[in-house]
Structures are given as structure tokens and as C-alpha cells.
């Protein structure tokens, strides 16, 4: 289960990095808003999830009421995080924000300790600190990040950490056994979560559409499809990681999205899309590689603890 959890966390980080680049490209130019992108992309995810839901359904051990209570908490925090992220990347490139989101590990640790009574030993604490150092090291290249983007990132990480906690609490409601969590449980949590979020998007769609006074804004149906499918794949992997290796360890593995994002940004610039990402120097590239190695060291240290 440990190997599956780690690999799932790494794949989640990789897919999230791709999705960040895609969302930055969609929002570039100001023809659509974070709210438009949030609604449309989750409607695409909802189509897939509603089709898949009957095939992955799991009967919760503690009843449907407890499960939907945890899902409501998780989805509310998730929506706040996603909207805040889309708002934030209008002020800074996604590859600049993504590494800074490694700060989520602080709030994940606090929540795991206060809510789930998960204490850390000294080696695990060092692993968390290494993750934070790596996250900040990646950001120390290029221009300074605007204060609006930093404040927005703080809101994002707090909301995402709370949403991650909701994932583990939902898992505990569905599966109360002492053995390993069945792989289908996290897949079911992911599918039903996005099914519920898509319902909110369906309700908001006509409200936002008829209240929109700007004819220049459009609904990015075609552009958001690949972003939506990439993000949904990342979430299936992330939910699996949290179920298999826990909240904090899963967050550390996911923190590799920062270095992944920077390396993808370099590739995007190389392909000529420098209007989406910022130019970077060779020294910046070296810093980013060192940061990626530091992330790997944090994951290995946490495993050995």
C-alpha cells in the first residue's frame, strides 16, 4: 500500500502541475474569469463522475448522513481553494505560485494533530521542514511575487489543507475496518465529491450567465475540457494517496508539483508560449533541480521515520 500511495502522490503532483499551466493559459488575456472557469471545468468533471458513480459506489459503514456531512465540509473547502487559486494566478504565473503551495504541509500537520491526534516524531518534523525549505527555494528566482498573490496563496493552502482533512474524515466514515483501505474507497470519494460540486456548478451557471453584464466575457467550454480531465485524474491519484499513506505524507509527495510546475514552465517558454510563463535563467534552473531533490529527500526521510 505504501508504494501505491507514494506513486499516486507523485502522479497527482505531475498532473496538477500540468493543470496549473493549462489554467494559467485559459485565464491569460482576461476573456474569462476565475468563476467562469471554475463552473465550466467542474461541469465537465461532473459529466464523467455521474457516469462513473454507479460503478464505484460504496456503502458507508457509518451511514449516508455522516458521509454527506463530511462531503459537504470537504467540498466547501475545495471550492474556496479552487476559486482562490484561479484568482491568484491572475497576479502571478502558476509556476511561481505552485511551489509556494508547499506551505500547505504546515496546516496539514496542524489539522492532523488537532483533529486526528496524529503526532509526528523528530524525523518526520525534519521532513516537513525540508519540504517548506524546498518550496521557498523554488520561489527565489525571477521577479518577486506580488503581495496579492501571496495572500491569495495563503487562502488557497488553508482551504486545501481543510479539504484534505475532509477527504480523510470521509474515508473514515465509509471504511471503519482495521485493515488496509480498499482501493475503490478513495476512488469513490473522489467521484462522489466532484459529482456534488458539479451540481453546485449547474445551479450557478444560469445565475452567473444572466447576471453577466460584460459581453466580452465568455464561457471557456472548449478550452477547459483538457484542464478538467487533467485535474480530475490528479484528484483520483491524490485521494488514493491520502487513503493509502495518510494526510501529511500524501501532502509531502504532492509538494513535488512545485518543481514539476517550474520545469514545465521552462518547456512552455521553450515552445514559444512566453506570454503564459516568465523567462528564467540557467541559475534558476539549477535552483529548481536542487529544490526537487530536497523534496525527494523529504519524502524518503518521512518514509524512514
Q: Please, could you describe this protein's structure?
A:
The longest helix is centred in the middle third of the chain and has 28 residues, at 147-174. The chain is mainly alpha-helical and 305 residues long. The chain is built from 12 helices and no strands. It has one domain (2-304).
Give a short overview.
The chain is mainly α. The chain is built from 12 helices and no strands. The radius of gyration is 19 Å and the shape is globular.
Task: Indicate the radius of gyration in whole angstroms.
Answer: 19 Å
**Average pLDDT, all residues:** 84
Instruction: Sum up the overall morphology in one term.
Output: globular
Low-confidence region ranges: none
For the biggest sheet, the summary is:
none
What proportion of the residues form beta strands (DSSP E)? Answer: under 5%
Going by helix content, strand content and strand pairing, the class is: mainly alpha
**Overall helicity:** over 70%
Number of strands: 0
Distance between the termini: 17 Å
Sketch the topology as an H/E string, one letter per element.
Answer: HHHHHHHHHHHH
Tally of individual domains: 1
- Please, how many helices? 12
